[in-house]
Design brief:
The chain has 240 residues and is α/β, with parallel strands linked by helices. The chain contains eight helices and nine strands. The chain has helices spanning 52-60, 93-103, 108-121, 137-150, 167-182, 194-200, 218-223, 228-234, and strands at 13-23, 26-36, 41-45, 67-73, 79-82, 155-159, 186-190, 203-208, 211-217. The N and C termini lie far apart (45 Å). The chain binds adenosine-5'-triphosphate. Residues 23, 28, 46, 48-54, 63, 160, 190, 192 line the site of adenosine-5'-triphosphate (ATP). GO terms for molecular function: ATP binding; ATP hydrolysis activity.
């Protein structure tokens, strides 16, 4: 594994074909078809319980659909996922990163330099030797992003990655997302923060009640959503 560089090859399309998910006979995601392509920032939006995380976990392969299929149109690219609460090892920030490099069989002599580069990229150099679990929420999230960056993913999934952070930490995570995107990574991110979606989205997938109601360019979604639920959502009305 090399240090992250720009991803030059086109990223395979990810196609969800009539994907549904049921639990104990209850439909949590109605049959959904969706194609994610190019090097775009796709934001999955919708109110609490809409099925955003479900859709993302199905897309990333963490969940198996009840029906339908998820397939890559071409070779499956390297993917990484960042969660709302990152799971970090009881070690220093630096060691959390060198551990990942060891798992990926990077020669020992190269691990520290690569890990330090990742820490530097995400503004964490000064915290290299601090135990990861005492870092603030925003710092932990940036460490999770640095760890993902080491994998040089072509596709990065983020599930409510900023929902428990303050505005400065949100900005730092959004900057980190832009760093990934600038190096050629496709971004797929869930949020119910409208302002964040407006800042980041190239296109928006809007879910309500386990149904995909819209997948549109961000400008279209924010100026002229085609569903009444989408309109209510962007007007800040509560919908359940
Ligand atoms: N693996 C699972 N097994 C069973 N039920 C699930 C599973 N994952 C999610 N659910 C249920 O599916 C529904 C949608 O959950 P999901 O987490 O996708 O919503 P969300 O849109 O991400 O909501 P929030 O904004 O609150 O995080 C919820 O009722 C949840 O309890």
């Amino acid at each position: 594994m090399n240090a992250p560089t720009s991803i030059l090859a086109p990223i395979a399309d990810l196609r969800l074909e009539n994907v549904s998910f049921q639990h104990r006979g209850q439909s949590l995601l109605a049959p959904t078809s969706l194609t994610l392509s190019g090097c775009r920032r796709t934001i999955i939006m919708g109110p609490n319980g809409a099925g955003k995380s479900l859709l993302m976990r199905l897309a990333h392969g963490l969940l198996t659909p009840t029906s339908g299929r998820v397939r890559w149109q071409g070779s499956e690219p390297v993917q990484a996922m960042v969660f709302q609460r990152p799971v970090l090892l009881r070690r220093s920030a630096l060691d959390n990163l060198t551990y990942v490099l060891a798992i990926h069989k990077v020669p020992r002599a190269r691990r520290k330099a690569q890990a330090m580069l990742a820490l530097d990229t995400f503004g964490l150099t000064a915290l290299a030797h601090r135990p990861a679990r005492v870092l603030s929420g925003g710092e932990q999230q940036r460490l999770a992003l640095a760890r993902a960056w080491l994998l040089n993913p072509a596709v990065l999934f983020l599930d409510e990655a900023t929902s428990s952070l303050d505005p400065a930490a949100i900005k730092a995570v959004e900057d980190a997302v832009m760093t990934f995107h600038a190096s050629g990574t496709r971004i797929v991110m869930t949020t119910h923060d409208l302002h964040q979606a407006k800042r980041l989205a190239d296109d928006v997938v809007f879910l309500h009640n386990g149904q995909l109601l819209e997948h549109s360019p961000a400008d279209t979604f924010f100026s002229a959503p085609c569903s009444s639920q989408g309109r209510a959502f962007i007007q800040g009305e509560l919908i359940w």
